Amino acid sequence: MAQKCVHKGCGKLFSDPEEDCVYHPEPPIFHEGQKGWKCCKPRVLTFDEFLSIPPCTTGKHSTVDDTPAAEPSPAQNQLTDDVVPPPKPIAVTNGGDKATQAPTPRPSQPSQPPAPSPAPPESESDDPDTEIPVGTTCRRRGCNASYNPTTPRTDEQCVHHPGQALFHEGSKGWTCCKRRVLEFDEFMKIEGCNTKARHRFMSKGNKNKGAGEEVVESVRHDYYQTSTSVIASLYLKKIDKERAKVEFAEQAVQLDLPTADKKRYRETVPLYAPIDKEKSSFKVMGTKLELTLVKADGSSWPVLRGDERATGEIIQVGRPGRA
User: Are the beta carbons of 10 and 23 closer than 8 angstroms?
Assistant: First the structure.
């Protein structure tokens, strides 16, 4: 009888105990907005990116979770400390008047968690013309159901979280429901709060039917700059170095980035200012594409893309001079 592996990052059904298991042997780390695993280096910002970090260790499947316990965060330690009692009111006199009590200071309200950035809109149904591979996991958060061709699609019930993952001061939960927990394992077990009639294994309209690839509409980016160049990062995992194409124009970059997991990102990125296309370069990394854009005029870039609205913020480039 098939059993489910409980190793972090695996979760596969197995019947052969000698079958290889690719997993994370150490607990997750959440620190100052960054998310990752203690056993490997990638750090990401969103929870969906965290779940996509590829496992780093190969071993054997197991039904016993032997992952070491995560070290408590400073916020969690603070929750277990003794509560400091409020100060007692102090009697205050005003000349010959009777003593009056100073008002008791009210305890400060706990800081509210920052509002998470809205999730990009996603299709609510599968593309009927796309074949779904057996074992494909439902894309909705918190569902984790796998596609079984023997189960009629009309009988599916998708219990999921429509909101975003929320991590604040040691507590973990979802923006769509009230439950909060401290341990990551407990967070992953929080049952979904919304139900739909069918799972969503594939996004409708996001397939390149000729090549069987998923079309990536947009990627997250950031950048920093010096007086002579702009270093930009476009975050896309598993880019195929052999097939990736990056072409520099005077004020744009043409990208064609296929990935090893059958995705493809194509776009012509307009730039804020002209570049020296002969001196500019790129580097493909495990989780991103890094562009080194050599400035043609040495001006400061308030934004990376030419179609982005400038914020008006003054950006210091190079080393500041002394007064």
Answer: yes
Pairing mode, strands 57-60 and 20-23: antiparallel
Distance CA 3, CA 17 (A): 10
Q: Tell whether pTM > 0.70.
A: no
| CB-count exposure of residue 155 (10 Å: 0-12, 13-18, 19+) | exposed
User: How does DSSP classify residue 301?
Assistant: -
* 3-state SS assignment for residue 249: coil
Q: What pLDDT digit, counting tens, does each position of 181-208 carry?
A: 888 888 888 888 988 888 888 755 455 5
Phi/psi of residue 9, nearest 5 degrees: 85, -5
Is the model's pLDDT at 96 over the cut of 70? no
Give me the residues paired with residue 181 across strands: 172
Cα–Cα distance, 6 to 24 (Å, whole number) = 11
One-letter amino acid identity for 150?
Answer: T
Q: How many CB atoms lie within 10 A of CB 98?
A: 7
DSSP labels, 284-297: E-SSEEEEEEEBSS
DSSP per-residue letters across 54-120: PP-EEEE--SS--PPPPPPPHHHHHHHSPPPPPPPP-EE--TTSPPEEPPPPPPPPPPPPPPPPPPP
| Residue 138 zone, left/alpha/beta (φ > 0; ψ -120 to 50; rest) | beta
